[in-house]
Specification:
Layout: H1 5-28, H2 35-42, H3 48-59, H4 65-90, E1 94-95, E2 98-99, H5 101-112, H6 118-145, H7 150-178, H8 189-215, H9 220-247, H10 250-253, H11 259-262, H12 268-276, H13 279-288, H14 293-305, H15 308-327, H16 334-349
Antiparallel strand pairs: 1-2
Helix pairs in contact: 1-4, 1-6, 3-4, 3-8, 3-16, 4-6, 4-7, 4-8, 5-6, 7-8, 8-9, 9-15, 9-16, 12-15, 13-14, 15-16
Length: about 350
Amino acid sequence: MQHTTPERVGSAVGEALKRLTQSVAPMAGLNLDLLEPLSVLASKGKRLRSTLLIMSHTAAGGVREDVALRIAAALELFQVAALIHDDVLDDSDMRRGLPSTHRVIEGLHLESGWRGDSARFGTSGAILAGDLALMACMGELVGALAGVEAKVAAAVGDRFTTMATVCTAGQYLDLRLAAQPVELLAEEREAILAVMRAKTASYTTVGPLAIGAALAGCTPEQVDAWAAVGVPLGVAFQLRDDVLGVIGSEAETGKPAGDDLREGKRTLLLGHAFSVADAQDRERLVNALGGDAKSVALAVDVMVRSGTIDAAEAEISRHTSEATSGLEEITMDPDDRAQLVAVFEAMAARAS
């Protein structure tokens, strides 16, 4: 039986985690509790980013399938690190339907009766767990490129480094934006879009598509064309995430509905709702930022009544169409293009 790309990537991630465990074993033994929540988180997910990487590599004429698979595993581990750190930054309780890593480690401290503050221990442990995921990511990338010709290896390494750098900077931009006065919400559209491109599109769509093409030996201009397709796709992906963050099912998303509002995240949805709301509804939106469940529910109602969700759906459709149209400008087999279009549309229409 032939395994699907997500299954193959999942196996590659598992092998990478085995290598990570062996690396720390001489100092910490084979049962380092820090690795358990990391491994659980890494075992889940839809492997969308790695699928894009492998698909662009194939569509661009690449033949380094085993190398692409291992780089895809590195990408998945980078995402694991980003998610762990993001949950710390947002103080999120849940991730993919399970307690977030810092909550798991906090619980370990509490149940074990260790000295010190359990919450601080959980935060510190999660930061280190994310760092370990980054170390594993680096190890997989270096290992994958060891036998690749220097020019191609350098191009892939450069694209991966750029992706990681831009994503990390985007995390801070998101953090800084959330600290701005709420009264500026209606004027923050461009700043929010910049965060979406940097924090999400960089490692969800732009980076994976570019890395796959670079590994196939494409010219810098050709790789740039692949990256350009990823920008509107990444915005559509984040917009869908934002819609799900407001009205999505917790059973599907693994996070409570309205969680983005509670965390005070600046999104295009919140900006749109704020710009069209009257004074009373604006107050409801403001109260939801960091508020309780009742305040969040009232704000969700404002977003639905104001047409914000409908406006977001229209933007998702527009950005997805721009991305799929961009594929027409790249030379590839029609079957590969059709498969990519199907994946693009699925990413923009997902329910989780």
